[in-house]
Design brief:
This protein is mainly α and 273 residues long. It has one domain: MetI-like fold. The chain has 14 helices and two strands; from the N terminus they run αααααααααααααββα. It has a two-stranded antiparallel sheet with strand order 1-2. Helix 3 packs across helix 14. The relative contact order is 0.14.
Length: 273
């Protein structure tokens, strides 16, 4: 009886959390089908009185959507692939290889995790400007090619893998790179999926850094372009903003739905040693 009650409380809590998460998405989608006047009316209404796709048509008319989508996709893919490669390599080295300064490097990684991103914002911007990369696509992804969280995540996952695999590979005459790419990396799918989803999500939604570095429309990403085009004449076009947000969030949802099984498995197994 007590167990049944605890399950009911669990279902109630999960239902409340589900509603808290899904409500903004429903409001965004339904709001994108409303007119500006209907969005501003008091009291607000959930269901559009006169549903319209005008916000979406204006979105594609006023935005060079293909260009901005291309920029966001390139930046997100480069950052994600780079993190998957370099973070997994360094995480493997910190987990299974012995070399001088190993503890110092791992300590530096942990220390970097404690530093707020805004602290390094100005030095990164000055470096990008001095390199002559301001207002270019490389400036949008170079500072994010390797993330300390990714290194920590992959190290913890590789620590949970038996060291006997490493010894067996060496006995068979495989080099360190061969052991990593042929033995360890194929088994790291859940951790890689977790890192890939989190990295892609952060890069796709990144707003502040592209806003500062990109000064012309040819280097705008979708979040920056959407924020700038939806605000004009001291008034925010909420219909356009909600329509753009609905389009921008679609790739993220598709990526998560495709990799959700690996994502959940990676979260559950990472750190188990």
């Amino acid at each position: 009886m007590e167990r049944s009650r605890s399950r009911w409380w669990l279902y109630i809590v999960l239902t409340i959390l589900f509603l808290l998460v899904i409500t903004p998405f429903l409001w965004m989608i339904l709001g994108s089908l409303k007119t500006q006047g209907e969005l501003l009316q008091v009291p607000p209404t959930w269901i559009p009185e006169n549903p319209t796709l005008d916000n979406f048509s204006r979105l594609f008319d006023r935005l060079s959507f293909g260009r901005y989508f291309f920029n966001s996709t390139v930046v997100a893919l480069v950052v994600t692939i780079s993190n998957l490669l370099f973070c997994s390599m360094l995480g493997y080295a910190l987990a299974h290889l012995n070399f001088p300064g190993k503890r110092i490097i791992f300590g530096a990684v942990l220390g970097t995790l404690m530093i707020p991103g805004l602290v390094t914002f100005i030095p990164q911007f000055v470096l990008v400007v001095n390199l002559g990369l301001a207002n270019t696509l490389p400036a949008l992804f170079l500072p994010f090619l390797v993330a300390p969280f990714g290194v920590f995540l992959m190290r913890q996952f590789f620590l949970g893998m038996p060291r006997d695999m490493l010894e067996a590979g060496r006995i068979d005459g495989a080099g360190e790179l061969g052991i990593f790419f042929r033995l360890f990396l194929p088994l790291a799918g859940p951790a890689l999926a977790t890192l890939g989803i989190l990295t892609f999500l952060a890069s796709w939604n990144n707003f502040l850094w592209p806003l500062v570095v990109a000064s012309t429309e040819r280097t705008y990403t979708l979040p920056v372009a959407l924020a700038l085009v939806s605000t004009g004449q001291n008034q925010t076009d909420y219909g356009l903003l909600l329509a753009g947000a609905s389009v921008v969030v679609l790739p993220i949802i598709l990526v998560f739905l495709f990799f959700q099984r690996y994502f959940i498995e990676g979260i559950a197994t990472t750190g188990i040693k």
